[in-house]
Design goal:
The complex is a heterodimer of chains A (about 210) and B (about 170). Chain A is globular, with a radius of gyration of 18 Å. Chain A is about 50% helix and about 15% strand. Chain A has about 210 residues and is an alpha+beta fold. The relative contact order of chain A is 0.13. Chain A has one domain. With about 170 residues, chain B is an alpha+beta fold. Chain B has a domain of about 110 residues. Helices cover about 30% and strands about 30% of the residues of chain B. The longest helix of chain B has 19 residues. The radius of gyration of chain B is 20 Å and the shape is elongated. The N terminus of chain B is likely disordered. Classes of the chains: A alpha+beta (about 210), B alpha+beta (about 170). At the A-B interface, strand 2, helix 2, helix 3, helix 4 and helix 7 of A face helix 1, helix 2, strand 7 and strand 8 of B.
Chain lengths: ~210, ~170
């Protein structure tokens, strides 16, 4: 199969600490075949730090590509890494993938993948973009944003008497904790970092309000 | 930055393959468990040719290369956030549905019946029914394909809960 997915980048109103302790930066949805729409939180655009917004761009694009790979596999045309690009993954034999994985999937699948196989590159991209403006630990904490969030349970998480969602959640938490341990990040540090990058962020750390 | 992402992100995602494959296997098992061979065949006539545009209750379109959607303008299936949609996949190597000049003599169900069945079974409709949609084509031609229910996919929301006081 040739062609890349159509990814649309847009904005929408999402939670941002008003009447909630939940701070959302982005969402990926409106799936149509291989394509999807990424929406940044409008409030976050003017309040969150540039660093977290950069992390969001990478993070949500990752979700969109995960959907693309799965759909391409379902179509029986796994992305041919040797022919079309050097980057795409070659998912074998996804033709028989039932709707259930694509539909029941979501954060708990994707985040687990991001944490286990993508995390080094994730914060590496942030560092490549920003150089020495931030510390490595800041890049790592930005990349961790929301990765322990399993998302809502699918409609029918019980398979053969086993709650598959709970299993995924446990795996996700374990992966998240492993990364924190690896980089010496505590929960308190992460909370302080998130707070400083979501609320009362200094103007010089936010997106500019005027075009340069 | 986006250029950098374009170059780096996919490289990084290469490693997803193994995990996604596991998901595929799990999904296949789930699918097999729920699959049955005793499905009842039902038929629906999708006519967008002879219905004026403002009165059409469905649209037929090709999305993403090979996937064809029949989208009914009714949020009739849980969680009632998207239109009820059925699809079939048609690739070059697939056997094509025959285009015929006479309306096939199937016992077509009504729109009401289709929505009732969809509302009751929604994402598990394909476990109980084999739904065939006969599409009315220009020039009094007809094409029938077996379709599958397209379940709603919850958008992925990425957020954190933070403690304001530590």
């Amino acid at each position: 199969m040739q062609g890349l997915p159509n990814l649309k980048y847009d904005f929408s109103t999402q939670d941002y600490g008003v009447g909630t302790t939940n701070y959302s930066l982005g969402t990926t949805g409106d799936y149509a075949g291989t394509s999807s729409t990424i929406r940044f939180n409008t409030t976050a655009m003017t309040n969150a730090s540039q660093l977290l917004l950069q992390a969001t761009a990478i993070h949500e694009t990752g979700h969109a590509y995960a959907n693309y790979y799965i759909k391409a596999g379902q179509y029986g045309f796994p992305v041919d890494t040797t022919r079309y690009s050097t980057w795409a993954i070659n998912i074998v034999n996804f033709e028989s993938v039932a709707k259930s994985s694509a539909q029941g999937g979501g954060n708990f699948n994707d985040h687990s993948i991001f944490l286990e196989e993508y995390f080094e590159n994730f914060w590496g991209i942030l560092k490549a973009v920003n150089g020495s403006i931030y510390t490595d630990k800041e890049y790592q904490m930005a990349a961790l944003f929301g990765l322990n969030n399993p998302g809502p349970a699918p409609q029918s998480p019980i398979i053969g008497g086993v709650n598959v969602y709970e299993i995924y959640k446990g795996m996700l938490t374990q992966s998240f904790n492993n990364i924190k341990t690896k980089y010496g990040i505590t929960d308190a540090e992460l909370n302080t970092f998130n707070l400083a990058n979501l609320k009362n962020v200094p103007a010089n750390k936010k997106l500019p309000t005027t075009c340069p | 930055m986006f250029l950098l992402i374009k170059n780096c992100l996919p490289l990084a995602l290469n490693a997803m393959k193994k995990k996604l494959f596991l998901i595929a296997i799990l999904s296949t098992i789930i699918f097999e468990v729920f699959s049955q061979n005793t499905n009842r065949k039902i038929y629906f006539l999708a006519d967008t040719i002879n219905i004026s545009k403002p009165n059409r209750f469905l649209k037929i379109e090709t999305i993403s290369f090979f996937e064809h959607h029949f989208t009914f303008f009714c949020k009739c299936t849980p969680p009632y956030k998207s239109y009820t949609t059925f699809s079939y996949i048609d690739r070059k190597r697939d056997k094509k549905a025959e285009i015929v000049s006479k309306k096939p003599n199937y016992p077509y169900i009504s729109f009401k019946e289709l929505m009732d069945i969809s509302a009751e079974h929604n994402r598990y409709l394909d476990n109980s029914y084999d739904l065939y949609i006969t599409e009315v084509l220009p020039g009094n031609k007809y094409r029938t394909n077996k379709v599958q229910f397209v379940p709603y996919r919850t958008p992925i929301d990425d957020s954190v809960i933070i403690k304001e006081k530590q």
